[in-house]
Amino acid sequence: MILIVAEHTAGKLAKATLEMVTAARESGREGPITLLVLGQNVAAVATEAAAVADQVLVADLPQLATYNAEVWAAATTQIAQEGEAHTVIIGGSRSGREYAPRVAVKLDAAYLEDATRLSSNGAALQAQRYTYLARVTETVEADGLVVVTVKPGSFAPAAPAGAAGEQYDVDLTLPAPRVQVTGKSVEKSSRVALTEADVIVTGGRGVGSPENFAKYVEGLADSIGAGVGATRAVVDAGWRPYAEQVGQTGKTVQPKAYIALGVSGAVQHLSGMGKSKNIIAINKDAEAPIFKVADYGIVGDVNEIVPALIEASRK
Ligand code: FAD
How far apart are CA 143 and CA 130, in angstroms? Predict the structure, then answer.
């Protein structure tokens, strides 16, 4: 079987999980696509998971209330062994990349990190990943049992296919973790998270200042219910938090619409958003590289165009 460890937050399946299901379907590997849901009070998540998977294994336990690398690695390993999984897919989030190598070691499996495409080459699982500042796309492959992490935003979210999968409760023998989470401060935001957003408005250095970023980028995003992204230039300048950075050293996104305001379109930025369904760029330089990937472009000054767009979208 193909085992996918589901990601979820606040009682909802994360988009990253649907992306991993697509990765599994495209991998060409045989066997049922099985989603493993780890957590506490996860019945609603399991029902959502069943819509896209052949089967769902649910471990609903108090010890799984909070993510912990040792516990997640032990749980995933145990289920992979019991189900004789040949492929284990884990999200390429910070936590996924923390516990996935542990799973590979425990299973004595090959480990492929940060896949942006999956396919089969005979018995081998083939993955593509970026290297050399995303200027090179490398193809790697491994035979037999493989643990693979999938770069978030690299696959389209899976739609339900056929009847809902069966759900099964599973028993786990879990270790007492050596590392304990002793505090958590959650940033409050009413805005949709970048990796979950269908529409993203991103601001680059061309918006001119942090004040303009708030006025134009956040203003337009809020008027259309979009997420907010930023280029590295803007993050490095301290205008915006790193969590909003899109690109090779930030987040990879694949929204239905990506609106780039004053963004030049450097290769490191494009590697994080180039697969967006529709790219709309506003830039005063007609030669800016962003126009090479844009589906729609406006050559002009954000100071003039964005206020008019916000006005129009509010009407
Ligand atoms: P600029 O390149 O300065 O572009 C600003 C644009 O705004 C220009 O095209 C200009 O014509 C336009 N403009 C100016 N004024 C206006 C106006 N009034 N109206 C309309 N348009 C206007 N970058 C990322 O974004 N994400 C990453 O993850 C990332 N990782 C990197 C990793 C490495 C190892 C390296 C070396 C670089 C990385 N970079 C990354 C940086 C990247 O190379 C670029 O420097 C950066 O993306 C440029 O950001 P920008 O488009 O905001 O700024």
Answer: 21
Task: Please state whether the predicted TM-score (pTM) of the whole model is above 0.95.
Answer: no
Q: Considering only CA atoms, which residue is closest to atom 28 of ligand 1?
A: 247
CA distances from 231 to 21, 162, 227, 300 (A): 29, 40, 14, 19
Using CA atoms, how far apart are residues 52 and 170, in angstroms rounded to an integer? Answer: 19
Ligand 1: centre distance to CA 289 (Å)? 10
Mutate to test the pocket of ligand 1, among 283, 299, 306 (most ligand atoms within 8 A of CB): 283
- For ligand 1, say whether the CB of 303 is within 6 Å of any of its atoms: yes
Looking at residue 218, what DSSP letter applies?
I
Task: Outline where 52-128 has alpha helix (H).
Answer: 69-82, 94-107
What are the pLDDT digits (tens) for 271-292? 999 999 999 999 999 999 999 9
